[in-house]
Structures are given as structure tokens and as C-alpha cells.
Amino acid sequence: MDSHDISLLRDTMDRTTDDLPPLPDLAPLAVRKGRRRRTRARLAIVTTAFGAVTAGALGLTLLPGANTGVAMPAAVPPSTGATPGAAPSTHYPSVVFEETPGVTPPDNPDGLPEAERERLAAHQQRVAALLDDLLPATVTEIRPVKDNVRWYRITAGGKTFQTTVSVRPTDDRTLEPCLSAPARKFTCEAVTFAGNREAQLRSMPVNTSDTMGSDVTFLYGGSRVTLSVAPENVSAPVTPRQLMTVAEDPRFLDLVRDTDEHPVEKKAPPAIPGG
User: Which of 36, 186, 218, 267 has the fewest CB atoms within 10 Å of its CB?
Assistant: First the structure.
């Protein structure tokens, strides 16, 4: 978490509380994925029957590090064809977010070479496949956000939520202190996994005291890894512990290792302790 992220996080806490008083055996994996898809099909039928499924994506409230307090604009179908082929057998169509409602953003806003865009899209497909397999079955859809390699849109209970999966180069070699503020509903839990690697699991109110976001952060090689799900007008449908299930999976750690060696994001400025 860089200094800007920390500042936004603190601002969010203040704003929301001012008015308060190794490789798995493939056979079990195939069985689990089959159950997961059947469960999702049943959930989709139930939510449709109750009219909970919306035709378009909902606006999203962002977690710290994603410009907290700014609503995510509506998603629109990408104007280009399918993203380049990736290792996962399932293809996850991307979505485009409008910076200004009703105004479709330009294609390739960063002016990247086509080969680099294909590499980033392949990375997003790999992440989406892991999220699809490792998040709770109540998450019924995962969509990469086009031209933003760290963002994904998940659907649960007929609502959409912004999800961040970031492996960003950093000079940081230690995590900031893991502090909780129970009176403000802000909790931080430090856990050890994959030998002696530390991760921090955070839950915090975002924009209102009743809508909770989830976040997991750890360091790997020369990168800071962040997984987060922001609330919408309801709390995030994934808890920090459920995000940790993704983070500690050997397949996800393989992806982190590969991304640490071949970054897909720009280097973060160093965090300022206590800043």
C-alpha cells in the first residue's frame, strides 16, 4: 500500500465514522468445478425469479487505492472482438467502464503496442479463471475490465462489485503495521502462509458504516500483492478470509511469481511509514 493508498484509507475511515456513536489432484478439482457451475446455475434461476438480476452493471464504490468515494461508472460491452487466446479453456469476456456516463472511452487509452495489450489480456484471463474456481460459488460471474489490468467485475446476488487483483512492483520490503479500530469497524488480521510469508487481512467500512469492503495484502519478491472487493450499496460478497483462500492457493502463487518476474503494472512509489 503506497502513501496515496494509506492517505485514502484514512480519509475513508474518517468519512464513514464521523457520524457514528502445491498442485492439486485434477480429479477432485473437476468435480468441484462441476458442482460450482451447477450451484451458479441454480443461483441464477433463483435470483431471476425474484427479479434481482439487473440488465446493466451497477455503479461501484471504490476501496482505498481505487479513488475512494468516486462511483464506478456503468459497464458497457467492449467494442472490439474477443480478447486474445489464453491458457484457460473458458473465455471471460471483458467489460468497459465509462469515465463519463454515456461516453464510451477511447480504445487503448495508454497507447500500448498490440503485443503488450495481448499479454495483459492473457494475464487477466488467467486471473479470472482462478477467481472463478476459488471464490465462493455465490459469485456467479467474473469479467476483466478492458484496458485496466488490475480491475475485474464480479457478480453476486444480482449485483456487481469492483474487484482488484494487483501484483505491482515496489521497493517496500515490509508491510505497514496491521492496526484495527473496532469502534470504526476497521479490522486488520496478520496471518502467516506459504512457509513464513505474512499477509494482512482487512475489513473496513467504505462510504457508509454499513457497507464493508474486503482486502488482502502481502509482499512477494519485488511486488506488493493486493486482492480486494469493494462494496456496492451492500457489503462486499467476499470476506477477507475468502480472499485469503485465493491468495494462498498454489496456482495463484504461481501466477504471482510469474507476474513478479514479468510485471503488468508500473512500479509503485514507496509507502511512507506513519504517513
Answer: 267
